[in-house]
């Protein structure tokens, strides 16, 4: 048992990878078991992630040296730099890992019936597993070049998945092309920044870079490059053009995973600005840049969403808008990082709100995309004007949609309210105007979702949808699981914040801990 | 565009492609001693297949190069690679258990400049071979798929 | 209009890059090389292979190589998935 | 001063790539732009590894008593080249699919997904 625990960081990567390599072979023998095979593998991965979470939250960060003579031995004797790839999983990493594990597991379950009619299923499932692997790698790795490799795995897998339905029409390929260009540029700029770090310090481990960081001009250039491209991959506003296309053209289950994938980029953004640079950078400037990006994302996202006719495009714009809340919360934390008094009084609180919102957003936005997928599965359209009266036919979907919409609009007792409340309270102490904008955006979100609810679900039963039935059981199960998480988080936010979110925030803020875990000498 | 190239190109290709493949495998197997390795050698082997596809056209190689076999080789290579990484799990994932063990590929190297001994390196040569198989098969599948795909485009344009 | 904005952005980017180029250490004179010296000195003894680059690729940073092989595999799966109905 | 020329070459390559991405309308040219940036990044990595008056880090029949260049950038570049091959192959395949569906490679005519 302890052996499994020691090797769990390797297992959580190797298990989905091995399954992905075997999926084409399994699919050749029996297409029926394929979906179940993948679901079981992702379920096991979720189980290992939960094991790791308990371990990390009780005993502190987890280290795994690949190929080392001992899993925890980071430095070779007599040398002061790590020479091997190290997985470095702390509170924040495992927090993101849990999101990835839950989301990809439910996506596999949902796909059991959602993707049944499509051809090339073994490829679909292999790509889903690879996408999950890439995200895990991005979140767990402590090595900056390794991060680049996993960023590429995640982006190539998501591009192929976005373009998966291009046999039916040209639009998915178009969205895939757009996303491919965006993600290749981001990955290459990350590679360039890796070169800048390596050229100056001759190390690739992030904790080691943080400890020797001099904040030269080259480091500033690397910071700007990294911030820009990671904000782009996270779908923040000035660079958000790929988001609605990619989210709306991908299959619904994949869209849910894509939301989590863009949050993995957001995680990397936070990791780099907090753990790599921390107070050596001008935290007030960078913090305000992130806050302004957040405010712009919030506002432009929601205004663009209101005018959309396509249900998935509308939700995609809302995803941009909700990304703004996370940037706002964490940006406030970054802006007051150098000021211990302010950090103690509201900075940590704001970051808790922002980080908690990441998980909440993954859950309710996933649920909303799944309900949109359920509507598409039964009606064959995503156009809101063509839908109507579906509440008569699809009871469960309607209930789940209401839960998701209430959560995204910040209505108690759902989880969106819990995290938004923390953000409002703490940001108000920092700057009241920002808090008011955030509340305004929330009201606009509610208005937009009332419109969707009205046009898709309410009204008289339409003639062409007379025979529409509830979606199959596996889809209902996936949606129900997400709805349960949403309600539970909404009812007991304090427990989650105390046990899961607070350690994540502290692991971001405390840079000395981060470097000391690798280099020793606390 | 004509499917096949001229007689000169076809003759030279049939003469030369075997040598390219052998050279590729040489580069793969000697990866731990000389410049090269799994990726480079795999790319060389795949270039032989690219040459064949260019020379004989997509129809000409149908019975000779098959995508399914390539896919199988690719999966085999990857599984071999990850399995040898798993063998180190007694210590850590990716631990080189066979280095300096005296068994297969287990000789210790002479420290410093030496003429090179093929039987060294532990899991490194095996992983080289695994990656070499994976790379040439993967590139082969890419070449075959894309050339078949471009043929569809060409047909569409002509009709 | 849009093009001129992009043009200005490109100019800024180029200025950045040139700035970075002049800020780098001189070509061919690495200031610190502790990690690489470790590889050069200990690779032969630890793995038995003569080619230091290969030892890094398959031993010290073997996990990167697994990721890289996976990228290639992903691309192959993606391409065959894209052409799955056109090419049998 | 002369020591910085490799880095300037890198800057020019990456700048050319970005220029291609912004101002060219053809999907294949966009793919070429990405390849240019990638080559710039690879060139940057490999220049970082050079050490004056040194030989390749391979002990097989190496000259005695010479310094060796830094091996890590070579390994990193190898990795990023293979990743680049995968990216380019996928992006060209998507361009082929788009051409099959729409009969054009011009980005202005391809644009079906609107705001």
Please provide a written account of the structure:
The complex is a heterotetramer of chains A (522), B (159), C (88) and D (115). By secondary structure, chain A is mostly helical. Chain A has a domain at 282-491. Helices cover 76% and strands 2% of the residues of chain A. A two-stranded antiparallel ribbon of chain A has the order 1-2. Chain A starts with a helix and ends with a helix. Chain B has 159 residues and is mostly helical. Chain B has one domain (7-158). Chain C has one domain (2-82). The relative contact order of chain C is 0.05. Chain D is mainly alpha-helical and 115 residues long. Chain D has a single domain (2-110), classed as Helix Hairpins. Chain D has a two-stranded parallel sheet. In chain D, helix 1 (5-23) runs antiparallel to helix 2 and helix 2 (27-48) packs antiparallel against helix 3. Chain D starts with a helix and ends in a 5-residue tail after the last helix.
In short:
The complex is a heterotetramer of chains A (522), B (159), C (88) and D (115). With 522 residues, chain A is mainly α.
The succession of helices and strands of chain C, N to C, reads HHHH
Q: How many β strands of chain C by DSSP?
A: 0
The geometry of chain C reads as flat
Counting helices, strands and paired strands, the structural category of chain D is mainly alpha
Major interchain interface with per-chain residue totals: A-C, 49 and 39 residues
SSE map:
The complex is a heterotetramer of chains A (about 525), B (about 160), C (about 90) and D (about 120).
Chain A lengths: L1 H28 L2 H28 L2 E4 L20 E4 L1 H24 L6 H20 L3 H19 L8 H31 L4 H7 L4 H18 L7 H8 L2 H26 L5 H24 L4 H25 L4 H40 L15 H14 L6 H16 L1 H25 L16 H19 L1 H17 L1 H9 L3
Antiparallel strand pairs in A: 1-2
Helix pairs in contact in A: 1-2, 1-4, 2-3, 2-4, 3-4, 3-10, 3-13, 3-17, 3-18, 4-5, 4-10, 5-6, 5-10, 6-8, 6-9, 7-19, 8-10, 9-10, 9-12, 10-12, 10-13, 11-12, 11-16, 12-13, 12-15, 12-16, 13-14, 13-15, 13-17, 13-18, 14-16, 14-17, 15-16, 15-17
Chain C lengths: L1 H22 L10 H14 L4 H9 L1 H21 L6
Helix pairs in contact in C: 2-3, 3-4
Chain D lengths: L4 H19 L3 H22 L5 E2 L11 E2 L3 H31 L4 H4 L5
Parallel strand pairs in D: 1-2
Helix pairs in contact in D: 1-2, 2-3
